[in-house]
Amino acid sequence: MDAARTRLIKAARADLGYRQPVDSRGQKLPTPYGEWYCRAARVSCSAYGPAAWCDMAVSKWAEEAGIAPLVGRFAYTVAHARWFKARGRWSPAPAVGAVVFFDWGRSNDIEKIDHVGIVTDVRGGGVIRTIEANTRREVAERTRGAAEYVGFGHWWRGAPGGSAKPKPKPPASGADTRPPAYPGRLIRQGSRGDHVRTWQRQMIRRGYNLGPTGADGIYGPRSAAAARELQRRARLVVDGIVGPDTWRATWSKGGK
């Protein structure tokens, strides 16, 4: 293994045991990874400080290892995987030092990636050993099977490229599919959670631009702007708030 991959793993290993703090109400507090990302990417710390931090940690470790231009700087795992693929650095093959992308739904679809980590060992039968951040709110080592990962970013110079494993073909427009159940509460600026991420992913599939952070589960100005555009096209009240009608329109042809 080359020196650059060794440095990346060393940077990740140095943070093993870190656990995200919570306040007296159990609310997650900002992490050093989120605060670093705010400064590095010049984005709002109110949104990113306490946000999901697995990919921000990988990006921070890459900077500490001196390989940031090769690994990238991301908070959104789907955008990170797309970036590797666009650069010809996406591969289905595990390798020590690679950035590994997971989908807990086991869809094998880049657009449904949930999580990311660093490969530290490759074992038989597709089993890998990893260091991951934001796994049960901590930085920890994990053992993962082949069904859990979608692919790998082979970022180092001289690494072979590759193509992703075959994946199901989605509807051409991302529309006219049955929507998931409405979450029962309005999505507006400041909303966050899995229901926000579900809506954002569908908007991205339909071609709406949510900015570099993509489906991060945080409903900010870019998400609100996309919602207003959808509402205009679907002839709904244009307020940038995702209620039941806008939720349904997100999965229907009327919102094209």
UniProtKB/TrEMBL annotation:
Highest classification ranks of the organism: Bacteria, Bacillati, Actinomycetota, Actinomycetes, Streptosporangiales
Superkingdom assignment: Bacteria
Pfam families referenced in this protein's UniProt entry, alphabetically: CHAP, PG_binding_1
Gene3D superfamilies membership: PGBD-like superfamily/PGBD
Organism of derivation: Bailinhaonella thermotolerans
Name this protein carries in UniProt: CHAP domain-containing protein
Domain Peptidase C51: 51-134
Positions of region (Disordered): 160-195
All copies of domain Peptidoglycan binding-like, residue ranges: 192-249
